[in-house]
Design goal:
With about 220 residues, the chain is of the alpha/beta class. It has eleven helices and eight strands. About 45% of the residues lie in helices and about 15% in strands.
Length: about 220
């Protein structure tokens, strides 16, 4: 490692942390709702859909697990064809990942998104090569909880687990990391509510990718 860094491994959330997926997710959620005859949601409500497990969000809105299953299927139809590419990488993220990787920091993705679109998004933006492994959700949403996602990476981390940090933009990331006694840096440029993030008491708050770079340096 060419420089001393405070962490040997970093787990990154995807949506709202590495990329801004709002357009694709919002349009796909409303497409799914339209297919089942439910009123569409305004943008301010749709922002809260970025981060939590998808099925849980539909079930909370619709109040019916079977109807939520239908909505998820419609969502994925559009998202896999169009929505995942209605997405942008936050400025400064590629350079940050490159520099961390060059310095020997082990990088991982830990996301509540399912694996196929996660891998396609990372490949599409040329980010996949920086990551040692990707922890994502099974297609049937069995391990949608962020703590469960992180748990799949723990054996791989080995001794470096004690020098590992989670980076994410929601309280789900903070809670998931805390379940494994892992610190979390919460980025506030994503889709988590600032007050909620602050009250969840992460290791630190980063208001920009530049501030995130300073924290992991």
């Amino acid at each position: 490692m060419s420089r001393q860094r405070p962490f040997r491994a970093i787990l990154f959330d995807l949506d709202g942390t590495l990329t801004d997926p709002f357009t694709g997710i919002a349009r796909s959620v409303n497409y799914a709702l339209a297919q089942i005859g439910h009123p569409l949601l305004p943008d301010d409500e749709l922002r809260g859909w970025i981060g939590p497990p998808l099925h849980a969000s539909f079930e909370q809105l619709l109040g019916d697990p079977a109807l939520a299953d239908q909505a998820v299927a419609h969502y994925r139809q559009r998202y896999w064809e169009i929505g995942m590419f209605e997405n942008t990488v936050f400025p400064g993220i590629p350079e940050l990942l490159r520099d961390l990787h060059t310095d020997g920091v082990r990088l991982f993705v830990a996301t509540s998104k399912i694996r196929p679109p996660t891998e396609r998004i990372l490949a599409h933006f040329g980010l996949q090569a920086y990551f040692e492994a990707i922890a994502a959700v099974d297609p049937d949403d069995r391990n949608g909880n962020k703590a469960m996602v992180i748990a799949t990476l723990l054996p791989r981390l080995g001794a470096d687990r004690a020098w590992t940090v989670m980076v994410g933009d929601t309280t789900y990331d903070i809670a998931g990391a805390r379940a494994h006694r892992m610190p979390c840096i919460a980025v506030t440029y994503g889709y988590g509510d600032y007050r909620d993030l602050y009250l969840a008491a992460p290791l630190a708050l980063a208001r920009s990718v530049a501030e995130l770079r300073e924290l992991v340096n």
